[in-house]
Design goal:
By secondary structure, the protein is an alpha/beta fold. It folds into four domains: 4-68, no CATH class; 85-281 and 384-519, Rossmann fold; 286-381, no CATH class; 525-662, no CATH class. 34% of the residues lie in helices and 19% in strands.
């Protein structure tokens, strides 16, 4: 539960294996030593606990347990290696150095006030670092779809910030001068190593965000398909690979060569854990439904012979499926093959009795002989998804969809069709699933989620992330007034929602067609220096307004967010609470505080916490009108005396003293 200062300190000492060790410690705590701390006495009887030795992994104990269980390490390791992999691993373990700025004006509009959909403007790696704190357990992601930038040989537009000095690379990665030179040589380039370095930390954190029964779909073309497969094997595990879907684009993609025209791309599909993931079937096509050519009071159906046909159809293949069944005239009928051999039924005796009881058996006379059939009703019939997608998922459809929404303006290159994402959602999501797309692009995923919810009454929720990449100065998008890609993305959601409202009259009551908007922003260097150098024992530092640097105006983002709005949202996410967590605003003699009822946590961020404010707080807590286990406060907003009085009075006047967390 750290603030920006703690994150900066963490990042300064993080190693390439920091994230991996943290994950190991969560799952295998028995192999880690205890963390050692010491208590330092400060002024005025205050104390501070510092970590003097972090937990360490006991490799000897781990290897001993492996040997005892006859588990052998691989002697001939097979793994994916590329320039920058250690740096990419380091990126995975870094904490966020940005703050979350709510778009107050947008979020307070009636259609957005109660929305549980989220759109984040900012670097998606930073967004993922924030999300991994809160979207776990019941709030974990059921399905991820991403359409990352294809490595087409051009310089990366989406270039990660690289601000590591040579000394830092040597200290945190153990790199030599030669290795540092190789790493720097790929920055901003279109090499395979650069692309893999870009993708690795994003996929690693995405894997953590998924539920145990979650799944990820990643679109890609020929340029990186083979490398992406190896990378995802490395991140998700080969055993969790489900399929590579080949998608007919309907038009040449421009990525072919002199010999072949390329008219397809791919979608790689991996589960978080193949043991738990269960795909949904797809609706039957119109052609498939036509074979259900019989009908009774229960609906349309087709029939298939109860006798096994084709291979393994003899009695000796499945002896338990050879038995007599009673025909309508009372005779026992046995499964007999066309040449007179003893055959078998497709089900055992007990299953047959159940089918008979459920009226799923039909008898017909053929050439004077009774024949028995099983009945398959059309209702709720689905088909297993194929890995070749060629219908209603082409690029021409996607271009028409976006042009129609934007009054025939072509504002976005290479959008994905809505039907493609709806098909993925149908296969991989449930009615209440959370869907994540951290390369939002034109927000096709959000459009698809809203459309599918409107059709089947679902309550799926989406999280979109899009970098505020500048549109080209001479593009149609810029001429239409869109300065950045995320502006187009958000406008697409609004127009798609309006289209759904206008075209459907029987919309589900709970249908969510709004979204909350947040921006990620990096505090100014001056602010970060003040945070890092803050000493709670130097009272002169309390004179600084340390909330103002976090307001939307100072952070140079749109909106009316104050520093309190920004810090509260950032802290809530950091403390493990997703965007839709309900927060109560409490008033203590004019002082505004924020209360998280489910955790009994009170956030004190504003300045001027005077004696009368403290008195009201103590009275409410003392009379059990307000249950508080944790008080999370912003020390910069408190004078030394205010902080001292708060701590002293809580300790002396309450039977149960809440834990005070000072976040710098």
């Amino acid at each position: 539960m750290s603030g920006i200062k703690n994150n900066l300190q963490h990042n300064a000492t993080a190693q390439a294996n920091t994230a991996f060790l943290k994950e190991l410690q969560a799952k295998l705590p028995q192999y880690f030593t205890a963390e050692k701390t010491e208590t330092i006495k400060l002024k005025d009887d205050q104390t501070e606990t510092q970590v003097i030795q972090t937990s360490e992994f006991n490799i000897e104990k781990f290897l001993a347990d492996l040997a005892q269980n006859n588990i052998h390490e691989s002697r001939d390791g097979y793994r994916l290696s590329f320039v920058g992999k250690d740096y990419a691993r380091l990126q995975t373990g870094l904490a966020s150095e940005t703050v979350i700025v709510p778009d107050i004006e947008h979020n307070q509009k009636p259609e957005n006030q109660n929305s549980q959909n989220v759109f984040i403007t900012g670097d998606n790696l930073e967004a993922l670092r924030h999300l991994q704190n809160a979207y776990t357990g019941d709030n974990a992601i059921k399905m991820i779809y991403i359409d990352p930038p294809y490595n087409t040989g051009k310089e990366f537009v989406y270039n990660d910030k690289f601000d590591f000095t040579d000394e830092k690379l040597k200290n945190q990665l153990g790199y030599s001068d030669e290795e540092i030179a190789r790493l720097k040589s790929i920055q901003g380039k279109s090499s395979h190593s650069a692309w893999l370095t870009f993708m690795y930390p994003r996929l690693k954190i995405a894997q953590k965000l998924l539920r145990e029964d979650g799944v990820i779909f990643v679109s890609i073309d020929d340029n990186e398909q083979a490398n992406l497969k190896l990378l995802m094997d490395d991140v998700f595990g080969e055993n969790n690979y489900l399929s590579t879907i080949s998608r007919l684009t309907g038009t040449p993609t421009g990525n072919g060569n002199a010999t072949f025209v390329n008219e397809l791309d791919y979608i790689l599909v991996y589960s978080k854990n193949s043991i738990y993931f269960q795909a949904n079937g797809l609706p039957l096509t119109k052609e498939q439904t036509q074979i259900y050519n019989q009908e009774d009071k229960n609906g349309k159906y087709l029939i298939r012979s109860l006798r096994r046909t084709g291979g393994e159809d003899r009695r000796e293949d499945r002896p338990s499926m050879y038995y007599g069944v009673e025909s309508p005239d009372g005779n026992l009928i046995f499964p007999i093959g066309p040449t007179g051999y003893e055959s078998r039924w497709v089900v055992g005796k007990s299953t047959y009795e159940q089918m008979k009881e459920n009226h799923l058996i039909e008898w017909k006379q053929v050439s004077g002989q009774w024949q028995i059939y099983q009945k398959f009703y059309l209702e709720n019939r689905v088909q297993q998804p194929s890995n070749l997608w060629k219908d209603n998922v082409g690029n021409k459809r996607a271009t028409r969809e976006t042009r129609k929404l934007f009054d025939e303006e072509k504002l976005f290159d290479f959008p994905k069709p809505v039907d493609l994402i709806k098909q993925i959602l149908t296969i991989a999501s449930h009615h209440n699933s959370i869907i994540l797309d951290f390369f939002a692009g034109s927000s096709t995923t959000a459009d698809a989620v809203m459309q599918l919810n409107a059709e089947d009454g679902g309550n799926r929720k989406y999280i979109m992330v899009q970098w505020d990449e500048q549109t080209s100065p001479d593009s149609a998008a810029r001429q239409a007034g869109y300065q950045t890609i995320d502006q187009i993305s958000r406008e697409r959601i609004k127009r798609a929602a309006a289209k759904i409202r206008s075209e459907k009259t029987d919309l589900p009551e709970q249908l969510d067609l709004g979204f909350k908007h947040y921006r990620l922003a990096t505090p100014q260097i001056k602010t970060l220096e003040q945070i890092e150098n803050f000493d709670p024992n130097q009272q002169d530092l309390f004179a600084h307004d340390m909330l103002e640097p976090f307001s939307a105006t100072i952070l140079q983002v749109d909106g009316l967010a104050t520093g309190i709005d920004t810090l509260l949202q950032t802290w809530l996410m950091n403390d493990g609470y997703p965007f839709n967590t309900p927060i109560e605003i409490l008033n203590f003699a004019g002082y505004q505080a924020f209360y998280l009822k489910e955790a009994q946590s009170l956030y004190l961020l504003a300045p001027d916490f005077k004696a009368d404010c403290l008195k009201v707080l103590l009275n409410q807590m003392g009379q059990n009108q307000l249950l508080v286990n944790n008080i999370i406060l912003y020390p910069y907003s408190f004078s030394f005396e205010e902080l001292h009085q708060l701590k002293t009075n809580l300790k002396t006047n309450l039977e149960h003293t809440p834990k005070i967390i000072e976040r710098f």
